[in-house]
From TrEMBL:
InterPro entries: Acyl_CoA_acyltransferase. This is N-acetyltransferase domain-containing protein. The chain crosses the membrane at residues 6-26, 47-66. Keywords: Membrane, Transmembrane, Transmembrane helix.
Amino acid sequence: MLWLEIVGWTGSVLVVVSLMQARVWRFRVMNLVGSVIATAYNAVIEIWPFAAMNAAIALINVYWLWRLNRERGDAAVYAVVEVAPDDAYLHHVLAVHADDVARFRTVPVAADAAPAADELAFLVVRGDETVGVVLVRPAGDGSGVVVLDWVTPRFRDFTPGEFVYRHSDVFAAQGLDRLVVPTTPPNARAYLDRVGFRPLPDGSWERPVAA
């Protein structure tokens, strides 16, 4: 039947397209939907080995989505490492991802610009994998300007940058009482709201630093 063939092809296409996704969460969701459709299709036409295989894949995806969601805000999974602005590894990460990093800078700088000497620099790591970089520049009036809050594409559906803002004592120790994001990076409004920033009339975002 034509409609059944369409369902079968839809499941196959979703599975294939999911393998092209860089984002972990998006990959799992698309692969889950595709494998569920493929399971149903193969069960209807009674190809049981493929039905069983796709059912197993669907269960694996359910497990990983549950685990990823549970770990989303787990401080035991993500760690924040403060580094010097001239740290060689920090410069390597920024250079390797220069084009992508440039899209998320809130203060325009040259694409190959190194962090300023007075900036606070943080690496967000998951195990031994670097998943994000946050740069904050003291403005001299008690404000810290968030120059960069960047996450690797694999973890862009999560909010690992929030772990930097949780440790606000590091900002208070620098004499900062608020953090400011001067411009909104692409699709960042929901993220900024989640990590405690609030929009200001001029289009910037502000977050108080707890003493």
